[in-house]
Write a structure and sequence with these properties.
- The protein is built from 4 helices and 65 strands.
- The protein is mainly beta and about 775 residues long.
- The radius of gyration is 38 Å and the shape is elongated.
- About 45% of the residues are buried.
Length: about 775
């Protein structure tokens, strides 16, 4: 079967594949660097240029601990660990200005010298900071020795009777005659007077109409008894406890705790109560008087909080952890994470959640700081929750992630979940295993859109898992999104962030410090129609950290001995708004001046550029863009120099404009997979596909180079050069263009690469092969 073919390969949004060439789709690429696959555009489009927010001299940071967050006023911020022990820096991602921080007690001690061990959780305008190296601690107050007992005259009858108080200090008797109309108040007054008279070292005082407080030494109090010779139920001696609720007097000493011991043997049958004179009622309390705290979580051992106090001001303070106000160490014990290292934290269902050991612990609902029960008598629905792992081989928990209606509890060898479709209570909450994959505990999982992403290693390659839960079938599945790109992701994953709207997940690794690997996915009618990989590389020595928020990618990187903060749009535009979508890194608006004496147009380097020293790096190509109404910017190469006391960028041309855009060129390149003949929708090695020409289809393009390489000859370069207007390059911003590229080779024996460093965008949507197919074996 021989013949001339002109097959078109469209839909170039499936990204890179590293499978064997015959296993690939014709629309998959061998390499995509600084290009992003896009279903919206029907192909791949180059990323936009970065914008420089600020640059400062390096050396003052510990980059292992960084965090980004947005406050309720709409401002975006970065948090970095400074080199000094116990110090942080909060910097605006809008202005680049560092905010002021007020440090409270214990917080710098808690931060210590750690960096990699810090974890962050943002809740509105507050960032909670956890140091996983610190052991949580608590202090319980000792039970005070008794200094008083109480004598209660419970009732009087018409019979003659004697109330007798006896102790090692003596005996006091008060007699009530037969048929007396005497009140309990009068009886208590007289009995207390006789105790004071007849018992040296004892002080008796009536504190309620029928209650006498007796104060003495512990020896005397231990020997004290109080009886009635007519009716033993008429008198009661209270030595810190009662055995029935009916033994509690109607009125009592304010704020003095009593233990109610109902004698059933359970913890709930023993609890403390205190008389509240304002409420005229007994309320549950602890063993200390006046509602004093019996247990306090040690501030220097618990997570701390960073809170915004002004437009550019923050405070770093210990959290106001709730103390124990009811019960004791038995009836209301300290939280289970005390004495352990807290390894993860999350905010879910109005509760703060901690992981420690093989268990998770929650606060009370709507009170992130309260980890003690509200009552020692009962376990209520709003009490803290403790859940132990359901997987016996899980020794520790690495991450907690709120995902959809669930709390995901992630360990290196098991992924568990707490279902949230019903109210979370101590008696009903359940922790169960969802999936079992070997994941990387050092890379933080992220919930992005309807999926949870986490990384792992399989057969020596880094993998990206996408976990989803199908509500209709109740199925838990985690798909390996990187199975078709073995060895493409180099090194171990360090950080994940992404955009649900763009369908993109960005991942950094420890082997390619200036590169982010990008996964782009798209679903339609419940089916995945895109699972694409590419990578974006930036002109920095290494990326310290990054964040994606509101479809903007923020990057903190190092370059030329400086730390720089950059931003770039996640969704790449196609040039419809040139001033926002030009392809130059470190882009910035500058004001231009023509100097007649020196014959140059110059601009003062923006303030953000100067401390960064970007223009001291000779390998970078600096360009000035000026809009002259010619379809795209004119591109003027510039030189930087120190002019007097200020740094300037200049070109020896009169640009005849008072404003331009200054930045650095960066390269984008894409290499197509080998071309094979197809039978139906499958590629085949049968026969010979001789390609004479490849016609590239572009949605938009500036100037670029098409390079055809094969091992037996010198690479052939086909340039699409920019226009030259007034001796100045001006990119050709063509739309819906077709560009023929000579190929002249068997389809799978050569490679086609498209490269560009233009300031104009480029989007390739397809290609057409002008080829002849020969198959001598076909009939």
């Amino acid at each position: 079967m021989d013949g001339l073919l002109q097959p078109r390969i469209g839909g170039l949004y499936h990204g890179v594949s590293r499978q064997a060439p015959l296993q690939r789709s014709p629309s998959q690429m061998e390499e995509l660097d600084n290009y992003l696959p896009s279903v919206d555009l029907g192909g791949f489009v180059d990323r936009e240029g970065t914008r420089l927010i600020v640059g400062v001299p390096s050396g003052g940071y510990k980059p292992q601990a960084t965090h980004f967050f947005r406050t309720t006023d709409g401002s975006a911020w970065s948090v970095m660990r400074k080199a000094g022990d116990g110090e942080l820096e909060v910097r605006s991602l809008n202005t680049g200005i560092a905010a002021t921080i007020t440090y409270g007690p214990w917080v710098q001690q808690y931060l210590g010298a750690s960096s990699a061990s810090l974890r962050f959780l943002t809740v509105l305008d507050t960032v909670f900071i956890l140091n996983t190296d610190v052991t949580a601690a608590a202090v319980s107050a000792a039970k005070p020795a008794a200094t008083s007992i109480y004598l209660v005259v419970r009732k009087l009858s018409q019979a003659a009777q004697n109330f007798t108080a006896t102790s090692s200090a003596g005996t006091a008797i008060f007699s009530v005659p037969q048929n007396s109309s005497m009140s309990r108040d009068f009886a208590c007054l007289n009995l207390s007077a006789r105790i004071n008279q007849l018992m040296p070292g004892v002080d008796a005082f009536r504190v309620a109409p029928n209650v006498i407080r007796v104060t003495a030494t512990a020896e005397i109090l231990d020997s004290f008894s109080f009886t009635n010779d007519w009716d033993e139920t008429s008198s009661l001696c209270v030595k810190g406890r009662v055995q029935a609720l009916s033994d509690l007097p109607g009125v009592f000493d304010q704020g003095v705790p009593l233990l109610v011991d109902l004698g059933s043997g359970s913890g709930s049958s023993q609890y403390y109560v205190t008389y509240d004179a304002v409420l005229n009622a007994w309320i549950e309390s602890s063993y200390l008087p006046t509602k004093a705290a019996t247990c306090t979580l040690t501030p220097g051992s618990m997570p701390i909080r960073l809170h915004q106090t002004g437009p550019a001001a923050f405070e770093l303070q210990p959290c106001d952890w709730a103390t124990r106000k009811v019960g004791d160490d038995v009836t209301n014990p300290v939280p289970g994470f005390i004495g352990k290292r807290i390894t993860a934290l999350a905010n879910w269902k109005g509760r703060m959640w901690f992981a420690a050991g093989d268990s998770v612990y929650s606060s009370r609902p709507d009170d992130l700081y309260s980890f003690f029960r509200g009552s020692a008598r009962i376990v209520a629905a709003d009490d803290p929750v403790k859940l132990e792992t359901d997987a016996p081989d899980v020794a520790g928990i690495d991450w907690l992630v709120a995902f959809r209606s669930k709390l995901m509890v992630l360990s290196s060898n098991a992924q568990q979940e707490v279902a949230g479709d019903k109210p979370i209570t101590p008696t009903d909450a359940v922790l169960g295993v969802a999936t079992r994959y070997q994941i990387d505990p050092k890379c933080e999982p992220r919930a992005i859109g309807d999926s949870l992403y986490y990384t792992g290693e399989s057969l020596g390659r880094t993998t990206l898992f996408e976990y989803q839960y199908d509500e209709t079938t109740a199925n838990n599945t985690a798909e390996d999104l990187s199975k078709h790109v073995p060895k493409y992701i180099q090194g171990r994953a360090v950080r994940l962030r992404g955009s649900a709207l763009a369908g993109r997940v960005f991942m950094s690794t420890d082997s390619m410090p200036s590169t982010l690997f990008v996964h782009t996915g798209h679903w339609k009618d419940g089916q995945r129609v895109q699972n694409a990989w590419s990578k974006v590389t930036f002109d920095v020595t290494r990326i310290l950290s990054f964040w994606v928020d509101q479809d903007v990618l923020y990057i903190i990187g190092e370059l030329a001995g400086n730390t720089v903060w950059l931003s770039v749009n996640v969704q790449a535009g196609t040039g419809t708004v040139p001033e926002d979508e030009y392809r130059l890194d470190f882009g910035s608006v500058v004001q231009l001046t023509w100097d007649v004496q020196t014959n140059r147009s110059w601009a003062v380097l923006p303030e953000a550029f100067r401390p960064a020293g970007l223009y001291g790096a000779p390998a970078l190509e600096y360009v000035l863009l000026v809009d002259k109404g010619e379809g795209w910017f004119r591109e003027y190469p510039v030189t930087t120099a120190l002019s007097g006391a200020q740094w300037i960028a200049f070109t020896p041309r009169d640009v005849q404009s008072d404003q331009g855009y200054l930045g650095v060129r960066f390269e984008r390149s894409g290499t197509f997979s080998p071309f094979y003949a197809t039978v139906g929708d499958k590629t085949t090695p049968q026969g010979r596909l001789q390609v004479s020409q490849v016609v590239l289809d572009t949605l938009v393009s500036g100037d670029f180079q098409a390079v055809v390489t094969r091992p037996d000859r010198v690479p052939m370069v086909k340039p699409m050069s920019p226009r030259i207007i007034d001796q100045t390059p001006v990119p050709r911003l063509g739309e819906n263009g077709q560009f023929p590229v000579p190929f002249n080779a068997t389809g799978h024996k050569a490679r086609l690469t498209v490269r560009t460093k233009s300031s104009a965008p480029m989007c390739i949507t397809g290609l057409t092969l002008k080829a002849r197919y020969t198959n001598p074996t076909a009939k």
